[in-house]
Amino acid sequence: MKDGFIKVATMTPDLRVADIAYNVGEIIKGIEKAHAENVSLLVFPELAVTGYTCGDLFNHRSFIDAAMKGVEDIVKATEGKKMLTFVGAPIRNAGKLYDCAVAIFDGKILGIVPKTHLANYGESYEARSFMQAPATTEWMLSDDEGNGFFFGAKQLFEMKGMEDLTVACEIGEDLWTINPPSLSHAAAGATVIVNLSASAEIVGRAEKRRELVRSQSAKICGAYIYANAGSGESTTDGVFSGHSIIAENGKLLSERKPFDEGMQTAIIDISALADERAMKNTFPCVESDGSYVCYSFEPTFQETDTPKVAKRPFIPENEAEFAERAESILNIQTYGLKKRLAHAHAKTAVIGISGGLDSTLALLVAVRAMDLLGRDRKDIIAVTMPCFGTTVRTKSNAVMLAEALGATVRTVDIKRAVSVHFEDIGHDENVRDVTYENAQARERTQVIMDIANDTNGLVVGTGDLSEVALGWSTYNGDHMSMYGVNADVPKTLIRGIVAYVASTMEGDAKKALLDIVDTPVSPELLPADKEGNIAQKTEEIVGPYDLHDFFLYYIIGKRFAPKKVFRLACTAFEGEFDKATIHKWLRSFYRRFFMQQFKRSCVPDGPKVGSVALSPRGDWRMPSDAVADVWLREVDEITF
C-alpha cells in the first residue's frame, strides 16, 4: 500500500435466481478478474450466491445447505489470493436464518456479518425469511475441531502493518436507516465501509442512492463501497440495475450507472482519510464499548496504480459546476468587501490596477460591492501607476476595463518619484536588482494608500493565495492593503473566474477581460523588450502556477508528503512537464514556502473562500523561523 493508496472494486456478476451453481461460478470469475487487476478489496452484492429475490425459497433447508456449499467453493477459489472479498449469502446460525456478508481472505472465512436492519416495506419482505443481527458478536464453529469465525454485526477487519486500513460492513437497508451501523463502525476505527446491497430501481432512487452514499462517506470521513444487485434478479415485481458506487470523504470516486453492470474499480487514499480524521477534533477517538471484535490479518498488496487527479484541483472540470463555483467565490469576496466598506464608512474603494489578473478580479469584486451598497461606481478609484516596465498592452487593458465598468480612473506616473528615491538612497538606476524592483512596488502602495487617505477611502488588496504561498510579493509593498479580497484565491482559479466573468459581458469590458486572461503573468518591474512586450514573466522566475497551485492544494490542503505529491504530479502532468521539471519546482515550492512565512504572519484581513487558506488568524499557524529540512530531504531522496 505505497503512499496510502489501495485499489478497491465492486462486482455485480451475471446471476440466475436460485441457480446457486451458476452464481458461484460467476462470482469466482469475478474474483479471478479482480485479482488479475491487482484489486485488494472486492465487494459483491447482497445475497449474490442465491439471488436476493428468492422469496420463500429461503425457507427450504436444502436450498440454504446448497448456498453454504457454494460459499465453501468460493472460499476455496480464493486460496493464494491476498484479496479481502465480501460475498452476500444466506447463513443459518443457532437455528435462525440471516442475510449475511461473508468476509473471505486467502482461502479462509474471516467473519460473517449479518444484516442489522431488515427492510419490510414497499417491495421488500425480508423479515419473512430472515432475522435481524443479534445484539452481540459470537464465535461460530465451522467444524468439530474448534475452527470457526465470529458472527455478528460489530466486526472490524484490520490489515496488519497498515494501521490506517480497517474495514467494516453493513448491508442494504442498514444505510437507509436513521442510525446506520456504519456510524459506530467508523467511531470504532473503520476507515472503509462496504455495503452489500439489493436496491430495486425506481424513478428517482438512483439520485437518492448516490447522494446517500456520498454523504455517508463524508459523515464518517472515510470510504464507502456500495455494491448493488443487478438485472439478473427476478423481475416479477421490480427490476434491479447494478447501480454501484464508490465514494471517499464526500467525493464520488467511481460509479457504475444503472443497467451498466459489471466491475468497477477505484483507488482510495487511506492515509489521507486517517490524516483528515486526526486533524478533526470533532471526530471521536477510536474506541468502542468492547462490543466489537477485530480480526487482524496480513495482506500482501501489489503496487497500486497512481490515481489520476486533475491538473487544476481548484477548478471543477464541469463547466456548469465551475460557473456555480465562480459565482460562489465572487459572492464571498463581494459581501466581505461590502461589509468592510460599510463598517469603515469608506467613501471610496481604491485599487491599484495593472492590467493583470489579480487587480482585475479585485476591480470586478469592488464593482459588485458598490452595486450591492447602492452606490455610484465612480466611488471606485482605479489607479494606474506606470513605471519602467509598464507595457502599452497592460495599461490599455486596465484603463479600458475600469472605464467600461464605470470606475473613476486616475493615472499616477511614478517613474520620477522612484528615480528621486534612487538618488536619495544612492542606488544606481542601471542596476536592476531587488532594490530596483521593490522600490517601484512600495511606491505604488504609498500612492494608493495616500489617495485612500485623501478620499476617506479603503485600499483594496489584490494579492492572491499563490503569491501568499510563494512569498511572491514585496514586503510592505503590494503585500499591504486594508482588505485583501483575493487572499484565498489561487492564481489558476483567478484566471478561470476572470474568463467566466468575461463570458457574461460584452463590449469593451469583455474585450479587455479576454486579453487580460491571455496576458503573461508579470509584475512588470523590469523594462519591456525592444518590441514593447513584457520581458519579465513570473512563471519563468518562480515556476508554472499550474504546478505551484497543484503543490499548494496537496501539500497544504491535503498535508501529503513530498514523495506522494511528486507521484501525483507526475501522473497529472504527464506529457506537459517532465519529472525533472516537476522535481525542480517542487523543491522550490517548499524552500520558498518556509522562507516567506514572515510575510504571511502579518497579512491584511481577507475572506476565506476555500479549503486551503493561509491567514495567520484562520487556518494556518507556523513560526516564521521554521526549518524546511525534513521536507527538503524527502524531496532530495526522490529518484526518477
CATH H-level homologous superfamily name of the largest domain? HUPs
Class computed from helices, strands and strand pairing:
alpha/beta
Measured by DSSP, the beta-strand proportion falls in 15-25%
Radius of gyration, in Å, reads 31 Å
Low-confidence stretches: none
Mean pLDDT equals 93
Task: Using the coordinates above, name the CATH class of the largest domain.
Answer: Alpha Beta
Summarize the amount of helix as a percent range: 25-40%
Estimate the global geometry from the Cα principal axes.
elongated
Q: How many independent structural domains?
A: 2
The main sheet orders its strands as: 6-7-5-4-3-2-1-14
CATH fold type of the largest domain: Rossmann fold
Distance between the termini: 20 Å
Identify the CATH architecture of the largest domain.
Answer: 3-Layer(aba) Sandwich
Q: What is the number of strand segments?
A: 20
The main β sheet shows up as: 8 strands, mixed
Total helix count? 19
Provide structural commentary.
The chain has 640 residues and is of the alpha/beta class. The two termini are 20 Å apart. The model has no long low-confidence stretch (mean pLDDT 93). The protein is elongated and about 100 Å long. The strands form 3 sheets. Strands 6-7-5-4-3-2-1-14 form an 8-stranded mixed beta sheet. The protein has 19 helices and 20 strands. It folds into 2 domains: 2-297, Carbon-nitrogen hydrolase (Nitrilase/N-carbamoyl-D-aminoacid amidohydrolase, 4-Layer Sandwich), CATH 3.60.110; 319-637, HUPs (Rossmann fold), CATH 3.40.50.620. Helix 7 (357-373) packs across helix 12 (491-503), helix 15 crosses helix 17 and helix 16 crosses helix 17. Strand 6 (138-141) and strand 7 (148-151) form a beta hairpin.
